[in-house]
Amino acid sequence: MEIIIDSTLKEKVPDFKAGIIHYRGIEVGESPQMLKGRLQLFQESIYFDLQDQSVTDFPGISEWRDVFRKTGKDPNRYRHSAEALYRRIGKQNYLGTINSAIDLNNFFSLRYQVPVGVYDWNKVDGNSLTLRVGGPGESYKGLNGRDNSLEGLIIACDGSGPFGSPFVDSARAPVDEKTTEAVQIIYMRPSLSSDECDQLTSSLEEMFIGIHGGEATHTVVTTDY
What we know:
- Helices cover 35% and strands 24% of the residues.
- It is α+β, with helices and mostly antiparallel strands and 225 residues long.
C-alpha cells in the first residue's frame, strides 16, 4: 500500500502522525463476550470520570480539538469522533455492540482518546491512501446519514476521492461480516513521539489480530514521510 501525506496537511499540522494497519485474512463477526464486557465497563468508568471533569480536560480530546482548529474547523461545531463518543457516554447513551471490528475500533478510540477509523479495503479504489485537508465544495454521505462538508477536515482518500475522516466516516467502505481485508487509521495525539506511536499501533494490531485472526502489517506516518 502506498501512503501519501499531502502538503495541505503538512503545512497546517506539522506534527501530524498516524498509525496505519493493513489486515488480511480476517474474520469479522459478533464481538466475543470479553470485548463486550470491556467496552461496557470502560464506558461506565468514563461516565463517572465525566462527573468530575469536562470532556475537554482529557488530553487526547483536547489535542484533537486543537488539530481541528489548525485545519480550519471549529471544534465546537465539528467534534472529532473520539470527543463525540465521550459526550455520548456523558449522557449515559452507551455504545451498543455492532460487530467485532467496529466494537474494537470504538474501544481503541475511547481508550486512547483519539479518532480511529477502520475500513473494508476491498471497497477502497486502488492500492494507495492519501491523507490531506479537504477543499471547498468537497463532501460525502457519512455513516451519520447526512451529507457532510469536508472543507477544512483531515480526510483519507483513495482513487475515487474521500472515504474517511476523524470527524465521521463515509458510508462507502464500512467493515461488516463479509470483510476479509481492512485498513485501520489511528489519528495519533500530535504530542506523542514516533516511538510511542509505533508502540501504540503495535498493541492495537496485536489485539485486533487476536480477535479476528489473519495477519497484518503496520507503519507510522508523519509529515516527514
